Structures are given as structure tokens and as C-alpha cells.
Amino acid sequence: MRLRRHFNYEERTALLFIAPVMTVLGVVAVFPIAYSFYLSFFRIKLTRPNRTPFVWFDNYLHLFKDEMFWTAVLRTTTFTVISVAAITLLALFVALLLNQDFRGRRLVSTVLLIPWAIPYVADALMWKWIYDSGYGALNGLLYQLDFIDKYMIWLGDQDKTLALIANAFVWKEVPLATILLLVSLKSIPSDLYQAARVDGAPLLQRFFHVTLPSMRTGFMLVIIYETMIAIRHFDLFFILTEGGPGTASHVLSWEIYVETFRNLSFGSGAAMSYLLALITFALAYFIIRTLGRSV
Amino acid sequence: MQTDRHLQSAGRAPGRSINYRRRAEIFRWLHRAVILAGSLAVMLVVLSPVAWLVSSSFQNEAEIVSVPPHWIPDQPTLKNFKAIFAATGDETVTYETRNKQDPASGDYIPSTAGNLLPAMANSFIVATLVVILNLLVGIPAAYAMAKIRFYGRNGSIYFILTTRVIPDIALVVPFFLVIKNLGLLDHILSLVITYLAITVPFTVFILIQYFEGLPDELDKAARVDGCSRFQSLTRVFLPLAMPSLVAVILFAFLTSWNEFLLALMFTQTAASQTLPIVLASFTSDFTISFSFINAAGLLAIVPPVIVAIVFERYIVSGLTAGAVKG
């Protein structure tokens, strides 16, 4: 009865329609985030289930003093920077290609969807086999082409491992980035090119002064979106290296996994994942701000 | 094009216009060559790792460990696939038969090979349930947010946007404790519930975009004809929204099919393990034949690849719509 008095038919229908989604997301998204914030103030060891003292910000302070945490931050940053730079650059080339009108364009764009569609686990096992130091294709190919005279260790080499994992990541992420960049390429009004051509601007100048600036929003979107994906990426690290060799690929998501499910410290695991969520939110805020301005 | 060429050649001496034409021709030829080279490069980079996975999955043990590798198997064999599809019989390797062989040679098909098909079934069931739930909660919400003016409409759209960016790894710790307390560990329901967190926001988003693109007059006409809001949604909008529904179904399905992190935390036995989990368990065992691992990987990528090729148009338009606002 009260509902009827306060809301008109439209509003009641709307509330009824959005109620399921709000309930579901409340339970599976808002609640866990709030709960992990709450958990991060306790010392929770599953090995000692009956003692979970409230420790204020101890978990966070502990993290900031932990060398492993800063190593993980560094590895995550390196991985993210390499990956996002490569993804953006490669996606730009592929998007420029697919923006042309040529026979076989459909074929190329369909094939490009394959990496996007397959599971990360399959991507990981595929590259793990390619990088294999004993029988892998990378060794085989380089050997047959005479670039190396004996098989080398790839993932097991500290200096190469992050770049190789990034390669497997980039291979799978470029298709999506390409689609996003293609949208912004297609939305450049052709008058701009006409005008530039009439002014006698050569190809490269048209590219740098018309194409690139008009794609600003697209680049922004790709960079922020891919950064959000890269800083929390887990699957490849789990299958390819397990954080190794040494700490060479010990990224934040791996550190959260180890801390939570191997050391069974749920409190500090929650603190770390909460920090990661905050970083992601900050990035997302930038997405909404920048896009809000441009639309 | 026409006016533009006219303008340019008008500015030049008559004698040089031929030169210009030749230059244009060279340019066009170069353009074509660059496109061809670029297309080939893209195809090569995308397809060659996959081709190597396919080739490896058909190799026998002697070939898979040859140095340098056999790019194309000399004697293709189906033994890996037989082991997966006929999990009982001679091909299954138990602990005893495994001991008879030298584990170091790696010629080993794991006894868990038979888990692959049940895992595929689990993945399929989970993905299907996730799709159904997505449609049930997503469609009315997206319609309301796109077509009904109500207090809190912008707020709810921003809320959906925010939930879309919650990283899955941040959900793992709280989810784990809750699911453990609910006694849902190692049950596929735990996956269905948690996968909603990573699929529903995207679903609602794509549908909002699509519904917003449909004219408001449709709604008004339906209402004038005596339709309720619900009827207007089911009879007028849903039939028109088919393309976006296809995209939504595909995304929710593929996301669930491919998901690894949450499944890794919440599943323990073959009863609930999904395909990525069983695959990952193969990769960490050094005694398992590489060709077997590749065969398992091949099975995991076939369904998504088919989906991607068949529904390319819907996927691209869906991703494009999903991109515009976040």
C-alpha cells in the first residue's frame, strides 16, 4: 500500500525490474568487497580458526614493510607497462590495417577473434609448450634458422620470463584492443582527411596530425582497460611460472594467491586484494571521467 | 576523391600531371603490398601458435620429443584423443602401468584423462546456467534503465558501471570464506553464483546500450495499445533486441567457459572441476606427454573458436557497444 502511495506505476515497474539485478550484484559484488575490507582488519589464519584478533591496520602496515610485497608491486608494474605498451602499439597497426577496404578483410578480422575467444589456460599451455627448453617450437625454430646453436632456457631465465609471459598475454589481448581502436578510427569524420589532403598534407603528416589526435579517446580506453586487466592477471603466472624463477614473475595476484591459499593468511590476503581493487577503481574512475568528457 | 585530384593536378604544370599519375599508381601498388604483407603477418602470428598446438596433439611420443621439432607429424596418431574419449580400456594408464614405463621419457597419458569430458560437461552446465541467470536478471534491468525515467536511474547505471570493474581476484578471499561456510565448496553452484559477479554487469551494459538505441516511440505506441511495461518489453523490445541478446549470451557463455581463478579456488574434485582446471592440472605434471597436453588444449579451444567464427559479427558489435561507455 505504501509503495503505491509513494511511487507511480512507472517507478514501481522500474524498481521491480531492477530489483533482481541489484539483489544479485549486492550479494556477489558489493557484499564481498565490503566483507574483504572488513576481513582486512583481522588476523585470520586458517591454521588457527579460533583465534582471529582485530588488528586495526596491521595487515596493511605489515604489507608496506614486507619486501616481497614491493617486489610484487615492481613485477606487476613491469609486466603491465610492457604488456600495455605492446598491446596498444600492435593493436594500432592491426586497426589501421583493418580500417582499409580490401578483399580478405573479413577473413583477417575473423581469424583475429581466435585468441580473444580461447581460454587463458589454453593460451598458457600453448605458450608453455612453445617456450619449452627441451623440445619447444621457439628453440626449434631459432635453431633451424641458425639464430642459436643450442637449445636455450626461456621461461626459466629470470631476465626473459616476464617478457615471455607478457608475449602470451599480448597475443590474447591485441584482438580486443584492435576492435576498440577500430571504433575510434571509424568515427573520424572523412572531411578531416579531405581537408588535410586539399591542404597537401602528405600521408605521414595526415597520420600524425589527423589520425592519431582523433583517436585519443580510443587510446585512453585501450590503455586504461588493458591496464586494469594486466595488473590483476593471474592465469598465465599460475601455469607458466608460478611466480618463478626466484621472484622474477612474482606479481601481486600471485602474491595474493600464495598469501591466502598457501600461507592461509586470509587477513593479509584480503588487505592486498583490497588494495588491488582500489587501484582498479581509481583507473576505472579515470575511464568514466575521460569518456564522460568526450561523449 | 575527384575534386581533390582535380585540385591537386590543377596546381601543377600540365607536363607533370603524367608524373603525378604514375606516382599515384606506385602509391596504390605500395598500398596493396603493405596491406597484403600486414594481413599475412597478422594471420601468421595468430595462427601459427594454434597450428603448432594442433600439430603437436597428433604426434606420437617419438616425434613430440624430436630435436628439431617435426612441424608436421610424420605418423599422425589419434591415441591422445582415444584416451580422452574412451577413458576406459587399454589406453588408461594407472599407477601400476605407469611404473612399468620410464616416467622420465614422458610417454604418459594420465589416469585423469577420463576427467576431461566430465569437466567439459561441468563447464557447459555452469556456462549455460550463468547465461540463463544473466538473461533473467539482465533484460528487465537494462530495459528499465534505458526506457523508464525513474528516480535513481543514473545512480543505478553508475552502480552497474562500478561493479563491472571489480577485479575477480579481490572477490576470491571473501567468496572463499562465504562459500566454505555455506558448504558449497566443490559444488558447481558456487561457480554459477560467483560467475554472476563477472558477467552480469557486462550483460546489463550491452543491453542498455542496445535498448537506448531503439526509439522511444515504440514504447509509447505499445503503451497506447494497452500493453503493460512488461508486455512492451517482451512483445516489442525483445524481438528487436535479438542481435544484442545473441552477443550477451555469447559473452556470458565464453566468460564462464574460460574462467580459471574462481574455479581454481572453489573446486577440488572431478565432481565440480571445470575444463580449465583439469587442463591446468595436466600442465603441472612433468611426466605427462606433451602431445597429450596439447590434445587436451585443442579440445578446450575448439568450442570457443567455433563460436567466435560463426558469430563474429555479433561479437564485434557487442564488444563495440560494451566499449563505448566503459
TrEMBL record, chain B:
GO cellular component term of the entry, any: plasma membrane
Protein name from the UniProt record: Carbohydrate ABC transporter permease
Lineage of source species: Bacteria, Pseudomonadati, Pseudomonadota, Alphaproteobacteria, Hyphomicrobiales
GO-annotated biological processes: transmembrane transport
PROSITE patterns in UniProt: ABC_TM1
Originating species: Roseibium aggregatum
Residue span(s) of domain ABC transmembrane type-1: 120-311
Compartments where found: Cell membrane
Family to which the UniProt record says this protein belongs: Belongs to the binding-protein-dependent transport system permease family.
UniProt keyword Transmembrane, yes or no: yes
Key words of the record: Cell membrane, Membrane, Transmembrane, Transmembrane helix, Transport
Membrane topology, from the record: Multi-pass membrane protein
Transmembrane segments: 29-54, 124-145, 157-179, 191-211, 232-254, 260-280, 292-311
